[in-house]
Specification:
four-stranded mixed sheet, alpha/beta, 31% strand, single chain, 8 strands
């Protein structure tokens, strides 16, 4: 699955997803405004997309970030996941939660709860979750085990 996300500051968001989460920027591309209008994505605004990948190969998770400086979007209520309809969070599976937490801390980013929390055994055995907010306030969950 590729996820396209419109952000308020694409450079800041690329840096956040690269440095804090571990995505790698693998490509960029432009799309013309007439094409975007034809398929119903914009009202003729062209776009420039930064493609980030988590992993490699055809099954890797891709995040496509774009910004429209001439027509900035409106912010939605990001207080909780139930505050607004639509896609509400991105879950990223990590191999080692302490390493993921250290990476975030190195960049001054802390989870909403302040730490990784054990997921109830009835949901996932031996897994922890840490919920972060990206530069636009979107929820990003890191889920994984503690190192053994």
């Amino acid at each position: 699955v590729d996820l396209g996300t419109v952000v308020s500051d694409v450079e800041k968001s690329v840096k956040w997803y690269r440095d804090v989460v571990g995505f790698e920027e693998v490509a960029t591309f432009d799309f013309p405004g007439d094409f975007a209008k034809q398929i119903g994505l914009t009202n003729s605004l062209p776009g420039h997309v930064h493609v980030l990948s988590l992993g490699s190969g055809p099954g890797a998770t891709k995040l496509k970030l774009m910004q429209f400086k001439t027509a900035p979007g409106a912010r939605v209520d990001q207080t909780f996941i139930h505050s607004t309809y639509g896609f509400r969070y991105l879950t990223i599976i990590v191999k080692d939660m302490p390493t993921a937490m250290a990476r975030a801390a190195k960049h001054g980013v802390k989870p909403v709860s302040g730490e990784a929390v054990a997921i109830p055994e009835t949901i996932a055995t031996g897994q922890y979750i840490a919920v972060f907010r990206d530069p636009d306030g979107n929820f990003v969950e890191l889920v994984g085990p503690k190192a053994e």
